[in-house]
Structure formats: C-alpha cells, structure tokens
C-alpha cells in the first residue's frame, strides 16, 4: 500500500497478526479473499445486510459524526463511510451492482478502495452517534467493525489493536502487566491509601472465595486519573464490608476485539473473565469504569450463552449502597467542584445499567450528584444517547492518530466550553478509561487544563465517609 | 527505522520506541531526548535509571504513582509528583520518559 | 396494457416478499446487542411510522418525506378505487411537492450531491414522472396517449423497485437497531 495523506494508524506487524490467526501480509488473491469474507459476514449477520441495503441517502446522518465535524473531511460523513463497504457489497452481491455498477454507485475493491477502507474505517470510533440520527437506525459502527474484520482477514490490521489483543491473550491485560508487577503496584497503592486515610484498605488479588471479582481496565493500575478511580472502588467496597478481589488472570476489562470486529477473539477475551470468576469462586462479577468493556460485559449472557449472569457495573453497585445507606458520601469534600458528565458512547448507546431502561444515563448522574456539591449539564444534543465520542474510541487512542484525535474531540470541547462559560463547570467526569486518557491528552489543545478530567468513582472515593 | 549516533545505531518501532531494551545506552538516550527537544539534566537521568531498573525487575514500566514515589525518595518530596515529572518530560512521564529510557510503548487505554 | 401493468405489479409484490425474508430473520450471531437505547420504552409501531427523531433533527426533510410517502399511499388507495375523488388531488399535490423538495435538496446541497449515486436521482425522477404523468392524464391532457405514458412509467417503476434501495420500507419496523435495548 502506498502512503496517503489522510489519517491512518500504523499497520500491524506480520507476527502480531499471525499470533491472532490472521495472515501477516496482504496475500496475492486479497481481492477475492476480501469479497468472500464480506459475503460470509453478511450471511452470518443479517443486521449488517440490512444496514448495507436500507440506506436511502437521505443525509440525516450527515452532520452527526464528531470525526466529520472536527475534520471537515466529507469522507468522514457516516454515510460516506458506510458507502465504502456498501459500494463493494453492491458490486459483488446485488444484481443492479453487477450489471450497472456506475448507475448505482457500485465500486470494485481495488487498491485505491483498499486505501480508503484502511484510512476511513480507522477514523471511525464506532461510537454509534450517527445511528441515532438515521431514520432506519443504520449503525455505521457495525459496518466499520465488519470492514476492519475483513481487513484483518487479508493481513491488514491496526498495530495497536492487534498488539493489545495478543497481549491480553498472553498476559491477561492490555498493558502486559504480570502478576508480580501487579501485586507490587497494588502494595504501593495500599501504602498510599494508608497514608491518606490512616486505614488499612486492601487491594486483594487472586483471593478465592471473595464475593466479588472486580474487573477493571488496566489503565486503572497505571496512571491518573484512572488510579484514583481504582482507589474509589476499593474504598467503597471496604466501607460496605464487601469481600472482593482482582484477578491476575483477568486483570483487564477492556476487549479490543470489539474494535476489530472479531467475534471469535471478543468471545475468547470475555470468556477468560468468566473463567476467572468461576475459578476464584466469586459469586458476582463487577466491572470498573470502562466504556466498551461495559458494552461487552452487559451482553455477557448473549455473548457467552448458557446461564452466564449479567455482570454488574461498579456505579450501579455504588448507587445501591448509597441508596440503602450502607455508605455515606459527603459532597463538601469535593468543595468548589461543579462537575459535568461526559456520557461515554459505549455506555450511553451500547448498553444499559441497573434494572430500569435509561439506567446507563441516570445511575452515573445520580452517583455523581451524591459525590459533588454541584453538577451541571452540557448542552442538550451533546449528552445522553446523543453524546459525542471523546474522539479516541474504537482503537484510535494512539500517538500517530493524534491529529485526528484532537480534531475529533472538538465537538465535545465546544460543548464543554459552553458548560464552563455558561454554568461554571470546573470538571468533566468520564466513566471510561479511553475517554479519560484521550481527554487528558487532547483537552489542553482546546484550551482546557488536563486536570479537569476526572472519574466518577474518583470523586466518590474522595467524598466517601470512612 | 533506526536511531544513530557515531557508528552506533538502534532499531526502533513506528512510534520511536526502542526495539531491544538491552541495547540502550546513555548515548542513545541523548539522541532520543534531542529528537524530543529535551536536554537531559541529572533529574532526568534519575528518572531514566529508575525506569530501566524497574523494567529490568518487573518487565513492565512502573505505574506513575510508583514512579513519583521513587522520584520523591531520590530527589525530595517536593519533586515527587506528576506535575514535576511533566515539567521534566512534557510529553508525559508514561510515554516520553519511557521512550527515552528505552522501554517499550505502554499499550492499552493509557 | 392492463395485463402488463398487473403482471408488473405482481412482480413488485413478489420482489418485496422475497427481499422481506432477508429482514425477517432475527439478527443474531454477534452477541453484542444491536439495539440502540431509545428512551421511553419499546419502540411502538406508531413511533416507528412517525419518525419522531427525524422530525426533531431535520423537520424539512421529515415534512418532505411524509408528504411524499403520504401522497403515495393516498394515490395507491385511489388506484384501488378507494375514495378516488377525495384522495387524488391532495395525494398528487403532496407526492409531487414532496418529491420536488427531495430532488431539489439532492441537487442543490453539495453534501447531498456528494452522497448520491446516479440511481438516487433517477429513482426520484422516475417517481416524479409517474406522478406528473398521472396528473397530466387526469387534469391536463386526458386521453389514450397520456394513459399509455402513465402506465408505461408505472411498469418501469414496478420492475425497478425490487432492485432498488426503495425497499427500505420493511426496515421501518424491522430495523435491528431501532428495536429498543431492553426487549
Ligand atoms: S459510529 Fe461514530 S465515529 Fe463512526 S461514523 Fe458514526 S458517528 Fe462517526
Ligand atoms: S441517515 Fe441513514 S438512511 Fe439517511 S443517509 Fe444516513 S445512513 Fe443513509
């Protein structure tokens, strides 16, 4: 493939793709293979077939995508992105496209098209905002996932996603943190928390028989503001007297195979978490603040089948503990803060939470409101099920995509500015490791301080009366 | 994709991270730092040596809190915080410092 | 000619049924819920047909689309001899007006031109030609010739429809992601 000026992530190396069972290089017959893979995918996934067929080119999704709004590149319009796959599908799988390709916008999968696939399907963060604008609910994220999985099958993977999936299979987490290093990190945290609170609050690892297995993104072990969130989980569970543990076998909530659109790897990564819970004999899986991980976890029953129960979100549990008075929060410990919530796309549009519809939007707000003196909302249409992606989702959180990430965050930054200038917001809370990392890095480019990005459980941890 | 100094050269990955942890030396650190617009001071070296020692022990970069605590021990408590690390390494202690220390790129949602 | 029209119409019905089967299979396989959360519970048929979100997001598009589809439905009924005198004039006005608007925005707005294939224009033109020729036969130049033109265009439309994107219709109720999450 030749270089092109549009943004594109680094290509995965042959060995990391081969480790996942994909070809390492573009094979001779890549065109046929890709078309065959598309055919298989469409047969297996009727909703994809629907998405490819039903578009009427009405343009209702035209201005829905943060990547388009931020870059101004018409190629980032959701329908333009879909059309890259749709055109090839038409060419090979519809009568009109076979007979009159020009007439119906059917195109061959040639090298130029492959270039566009690689670039534009890696500028989509799979956030589904566009799907809420489409009268038919056409979900570009599904199309992107399908396209990426086809690319992988012809040896074209994205470096960071491929490496991370291999790493999680090998070490149990995306960072590559081994059990000894993890234990060492947790010891250091116990020390910090003892210094801060004067109490022995534990960060248990691999403790069989605990009530809860907590699965959290490995970023929570690594950097701020993530780590403060982990401290929040530990404090809440400690205060509630719930026995819990982390697992070194499943020391990662994230599931990057969702980004790649590989069902096989997605199941494998999910199953490893379920196995860890079964091995440790914990009765309940609880997930920490991670957006796409929660989407996958919420769907465990459908994904893993059998009688696998639906895991619980840490915010849902915390909400219940606050509600029945088992823990108490003192918002004045977060004095001076006016916090607005950035709904993470995969939580807001890819899952639910608790027992009531819309819980994924209401529960985080309720917990946040209990933890801080004042909450404010960003403008309607930029939050809730219409939330803007942070710009770093879907595997885009890499250095070489920085320009796209900064631009893609522009719509969120504009909404945040309104909340800051109009309602005096001082902080923005997120409940996803990607959102937190992305915002910490790119908000300074939009004139905000990186320190204004916080997690809800971080604020809960500070407000908690121990 | 190589860093070069005199007649030495070191392969690095697409993002500028060293391929082979063991092949690092002080000359290389200076080369990478120069590419990142950083002039290495004794405080930088303290951080770099700690990162290398930790990686040699644990095969992974230390968590940022672990790093700041170590810095506090070595350079004094007023310097053991992320803000100070960020003054030393504006590109962030996790990424930029690791790169100059010859550690691989931290992966995942960080 | 009537026989031909009927045959073409039967072809259309068959085509629709055949393509419906694609969407009737319940989406399965991926396991990560395809549904999109739409607040307020299950997406009812009324909600599905009203496109409330589109109304809020793009009122002019909603209006044009409703006028066109409403007009089309009225004229279909009129063709089946159901209240023809009541339905014809308002149906034709709505359909022609709606189509003209849809075609106009596709031609004039650069963003719309960019996402359109030739067939997107041609289908709108074909529909418009059908409506206009019918109106011409009824009110402007009644006669054998006008009727033939209208019937001919109708046959073309019926033959083309099963191969076109105009079969988005079943998706209104069957769209996998328009089903709510908690179902
Ligand atoms: S899923 Fe999100 S990133 Fe992808 S096209 Fe839609 S709005 Fe844009
Ligand atoms: S809103 Fe839906 S039907 Fe309209 S152009 Fe976009 S994807 Fe196609």
Key attributes of the depicted protein:
heterotrimer; A: 466 residues; mainly alpha; Fumarate Reductase Iron-sulfur Protein, Chain B, domain 2; 2 domains; four-stranded parallel sheet; 6% strand; globular; B: 110 residues; Arc Repressor Mutant, subunit A; two-stranded antiparallel sheet; 7% strand; binds iron/sulfur cluster
List the helices and strands and how they pair.
The complex is a heterotrimer of chains A (466), B (110) and C (183).
Chain A lengths: L13 H6 L10 H15 L1 H9 L11 H6 L6 H16 L1 H5 L1 H4 L6 H10 L19 H14 L5 H13 L7 H19 L14 E4 L10 H14 L4 E2 L11 H4 L2 H18 L3 E4 L3 H8 L1 H5 L7 E2 H10 L14 E4 L3 H4 L10 H13 L2 E3 L25 H7 L1 H14 L3 E4 L2 H10 L10 E3 H8 L3
Helix pairs in contact in A: 2-3, 2-9, 5-9, 12-23, 17-19, 19-23
Chain B lengths: L1 E4 L2 E4 L14 H10 L6 H17 L5 H12 L6 H7 L3 H9 L10
Antiparallel strand pairs in B: 1-2
Helix pairs in contact in B: 2-3
Chain C lengths: L1 H23 L20 H6 L1 H6 L1 H21 L4 H25 L1 H6 L2 H23 L3 H17 L10 H4 L9
Helix pairs in contact in C: 1-8, 4-5, 5-7, 7-8
The complex binds iron/sulfur cluster (SF4) (2 copies).
Q: How much is the average pLDDT of chain C?
A: 85
Globally, the shape of chain A reads globular
Q: How much beta of chain A, percentage-wise?
A: 5-15%
Main sheet makeup of chain C: none
What is the overall number of helices of chain C? 9
Per the CATH scheme, the topology name of chain C is Fumarate Reductase Cytochrome B subunit
Strand elements of chain A, count: 8
Largest interface: A-C, 58 and 55 residues
Average pLDDT level of chain A: 95
Task: Give the number of domains of chain A.
Answer: 2
Q: Per CATH, which architecture of chain C?
A: Up-down Bundle
Poorly predicted tracts of residues of chain A: none
Uncertain runs of chain C? none
Q: What is the CA–CA distance across the termini of chain A?
A: 58 Å
Residue share in helices of chain A? 40-55%
CATH class of chain C: Mainly Alpha
Can you give a write-up of this model?
The complex is a heterotrimer of chains A (466), B (110) and C (183). Chain A has 466 residues and is mainly α. Chain A folds into two domains: 3-157, Fumarate Reductase Iron-sulfur Protein, Chain B, domain 2; 166-463, no CATH class. Helices cover 50% and strands 6% of the residues of chain A. In chain A, strands 2-1-3-4 form a four-stranded parallel beta sheet. Chain B has 110 residues and is mainly α. Chain B has one domain (2-100): DsrC protein, C-terminal domain (Arc Repressor Mutant, subunit A), CATH 1.10.10.370. A two-stranded antiparallel sheet of chain B has the order 1-2. The radius of gyration of chain B is 13 Å and the shape is globular. The two termini of chain B are 24 Å apart. With 183 residues, chain C is mainly α. Chain C has helices at 2-24, 45-50, 52-57, 59-79, 84-108, 110-115, 118-140, 144-160, 171-174. Chain C is globular and about 60 Å long. The model of chain C has no long low-confidence stretch (mean pLDDT 85). Classes of the chains: A mainly alpha (466), B mainly alpha (110), C mainly alpha (183). Chains A and C meet through α3, α5, α7, α14 and α15 of A and α1, α3, α6, α7 and α9 of C.
